[in-house]
Design brief:
By secondary structure, this protein is mostly helical. The chain is 48% helix and 6% strand. Pfam families: AAA_6 (PF12774).
């Protein structure tokens, strides 16, 4: 890759560079150092990793990183010294929210964006500090996209009601019980005259109760409520994490929701497109290695060995050919491109 960059004079930008393992970063630092030394000396061709290649002086390398999130690697000093740092200012959340609301068709975008940003600011200050709470730009953007979808689906509702519903449905499922009243109070203070109608879960709730009775489960109102929240979350998120203590009902919530949606589609023949047949594939990631999970290239056989994840995806879509065009990137899969790509391209 670096060899092609040097010869073509291309510009490379490595996004989220500090996600790479520290061992790989050290190797990258050595290669970039070789390129920079050759550029400073005006050498062309030059020896790069044992091969003589021409050097186009127009080539350049850029990296972006966000050290504020978990799972990031601290860049080694020998790599930091190769780049000129550029610090970015804190974005104007209100302006970004206003523009996104306008793009989603809201007419009162300016006051709504200001109230939304204020709500997130107060929530971050007054609610308990939990690792899974996120009141940053990612959370704001997801709520705005959800609000746009709700507005298109519920044209009879006022814009402030639509935004309140989006903020509630996006945030309440992840809050601890003691934080829910605080969040509701903040919403009430910012939108004092708003009366939000409750969602109608009639068919889904009835089917959930049927499934519980068939499985000999007790009908616990709080568990049914959390199952409804899980259903709402699936409507706005591509990845969902169930967090709770052992024997807290996480698996039960997931299973009864899957059975209820399948029953609504296949038995009750519901015309609602939100109810689809659910196929569950269970995997225990802590019991297997990364290569076993995502697949790897075998240096012994010089062939790609499929991982469990790609096997499950292929099995679900009934693709027996296992088309070899994948490299894993969970971040891209869930948030950016909505694609699953594995590193076994021919």
């Amino acid at each position: 890759m670096f060899s092609g960059m040097c010869q073509a004079g291309a510009w490379f930008c490595f996004d989220e560079f500090n996600r790479i393992d520290i061992e790989v970063l050290s190797v990258v630092a050595q290669q970039i150092r070789e390129i920079q030394n050759a550029m400073q000396a005006g050498q062309s061709p030059f020896n790069f990793q044992g091969t003589e290649i021409p050097l186009n002086p127009n080539c350049a390398v850029f990296i972006t990183m966000n050290p504020g999130y978990a799972g990031r690697t601290e860049l080694p000093d020998n790599l930091k010294s190769l780049f000129r740092p550029v610090a970015m200012m804190i974005p104007d959340y209100a302006l970004i929210a206003e523009i996104m609301l306008y793009s989603e068709g809201f007419k009162t975008a300016k006051p709504l964006s200001q109230k939304m940003v204020q709500l997130y600011k107060l929530s971050s200050e007054q609610l308990s500090q939990q690792r899974h709470y996120d009141f940053g730009m990612r959370a704001v953007k997801s709520v705005l996209v959800m609000a746009g979808q709700l507005r298109r689906d519920n044209t009879q509702l006022s814009e402030d009601i639509v935004l309140i519903r989006a903020m509630r449905e996006s945030n309440l499922p992840k809050f601890l019980a003691e934080d829910v009243p605080l969040f509701e109070d903040i919403v009430g203070d910012l939108f004092p005259d708003a009366i939000v109608p409750k969602n109608d879960y009639g068919a889904l709730m009835t089917t959930l109760e049927e499934v519980c009775k068939d499985k000999c489960y007790q009908l616990i109102p709080n568990q049914l409520h959390k199952t409804i929240e899980l259903y709402d979350t699936f409507g706005v998120r591509h990845g969902v994490m169930l967090v709770g203590p052992t024997r807290g009902g996480k698996t039960v919530c997931r299973d009864i929701l899957a059975d209820a949606m399948t029953r609504l589609r296949e038995v009750h023949k519901s015309p609602d497109e939100r109810f689809q047949t659910v196929i569950q594939k269970q995997m225990n990631p802590k019991s297997i290695s990364i290569d076993e999970m995502f697949g790897c290239f075998s240096e012994l056989t010089q062939e790609w060995k499929e991982g469990l994840l790609s096997y499950f995806v292929s099995d679900v879509v009934k693709d027996d050919s296992l088309t070899k065009k994948w490299i894993i990137s969970t971040c891209l899969t869930l948030f950016l491109l909505f694609l699953l790509i594995l590193s076994n391209q021919p």
